[in-house]
Design brief:
This protein has 258 residues and is α+β, with helices and mostly antiparallel strands. It folds into 2 domains: 112 residues, Diaminopimelate Epimerase, Chain A, domain 1; 126 residues, Diaminopimelate Epimerase, Chain A, domain 1 (Roll), CATH 3.10.310. Helix content is 16%, strand content 46%. It has a 17-stranded mixed sheet that branches. The mean pLDDT is 96.
């Protein structure tokens, strides 16, 4: 059987996206499809499905084949995919594993509303929070020269986090409201070129570390795969109206025999 798919990337985070509204692709070998040698190659795979009360449902798998928590860059990419299917005009409401998401589409940008964040913990000098997926944020200097995989694995597999796993981010403050971020993602078990929920976590952590006041803030973030923006309303340590903003690019249409 030939499986039609589209390959997408959002700030270098790459995905296989499949129209599964007919539910004919419920039992795919996701790990093989995501494998760069034996399949298409991707950080993750998404199925777009019908669900009552929403324009569509996003079902996301990490490249290891396991169902995953929310993926921000994937969410922006599947919005562009859904736009191509004619499911909405410029505003959509869809369901993901962490609940309802609003999104705004334009030719150059997709704006994805993330979940509110009400709990930000610390672990030493690091921040630990959930932005749809769990994240560990450590501020460092000169992160371009860091060997982040070994440093991240020491955190991801330590006694505190190894059971559930955690995504590990290293962030460098470039200036006022400006960060550079590198991320190690669980499930991929390697550094990815960007991570949407990760940059969201870094932006929120920065607002606390930098002592930003209450109100709306926009944080500009550079990742190895491209540039993203995160905006949110900060009220003490409650973060609402959180938006992840950046490009979503279709790379190609394809078919693969399964």
């Amino acid at each position: 059987m030939n499986l039609p798919f589209q390959k997408y990337q959002g700030a270098g985070n790459d995905f296989i996206i499949i129209d599964n509204r007919g539910r004919q692709y419920d039992h795919l070998n996701v790990a093989q499809l995501c494998h760069p040698k034996f399949g298409i190659g991707a950080d993750g795979l998404m199925l777009l499905q019908n669900t009552e009360g929403f324009d569509f449902e996003m079902v996301y798998y990490n490249s290891d084949g396991n169902i995953s928590t929310m993926c921000g860059n994937g969410g922006r990419c599947i919005v562009d995919f859904a736009k191509g299917l004619g499911l909405f005009e410029t505003h959509t409401v869809f369901k993901a594993i962490d609940g309802k998401h609003d999104a705004l589409w334009s030719e150059a940008m997709v704006e994805l509303q993330m979940q509110n964040v009400a709990l930000v913990n610390t672990n030493g000098t690091a921040f630990v929070l959930n932005t749809g997926s769990p994240h560990y944020v450590q501020f460092e200097k000169a992160i371009d020269t860091l060997e982040i995989v070994s440093k991240a694995q020491a955190i991801r597999y330590n006694e505190t986090y190894k059971a559930e796993g955690i995504n590990v981010n290293f962030a460098e403050i470039l200036g006022s409201n400006s960060l550079k971020v590198r991320t190690y993602e669980r499930g991929v078990e390697d550094e990815t070129l960007s991570c949407g929920t990760g940059v969201t976590a870094c932006a929120i952590a920065y607002s606390i570390a930098a002592g930003l006041g209450d109100g709306m803030h926009t944080i500009y973030i550079s990742t190895p795969g491209g540039n993203l923006k995160v905006k949110f309303n900060k009220q003490n340590r409650l973060f609402t109206d959180v938006w992840l903003i950046g490009p979503a690019t279709k790379v190609y249409d394809g078919q693969i025999q399964i």
